[in-house]
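Can anyone check this?
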Amino acid sequence: MRVLLDENVDRRLKQSLDDEFEVLTVTECGWSGKKNGELLRAAEQEFDVLLTMDRNMEHQQNLSALDLGVVLILARSNRRQDVEPAMPEVNQVLKRIRPGELGTVTI
């Protein structure tokens, strides 16, 4: 499974994702600065899941129409130390997410 880390997710969290996932960041793909709609359209061509902390994405975009799953992490901040405790649950959600679905992990 190919996973894209949004710009608002600390890139160092890549190492907390299971080895079975191929993980790239928005920056590594050369997509820095793309707006949500544009990013989602690009991501669904090359990835299975977008991992994000953008709380507004589900309200601004029709995620069910995408050929891409979206996993939303809800944490106090996007600082690594605030998000890292959620990573075991994120790995579980990634394993079962399907295109057009929104999975949410709250810590």
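Reply from J.R.: I decoded it. The domain at 2-106 is CATH 3.40.50 (Rossmann fold).
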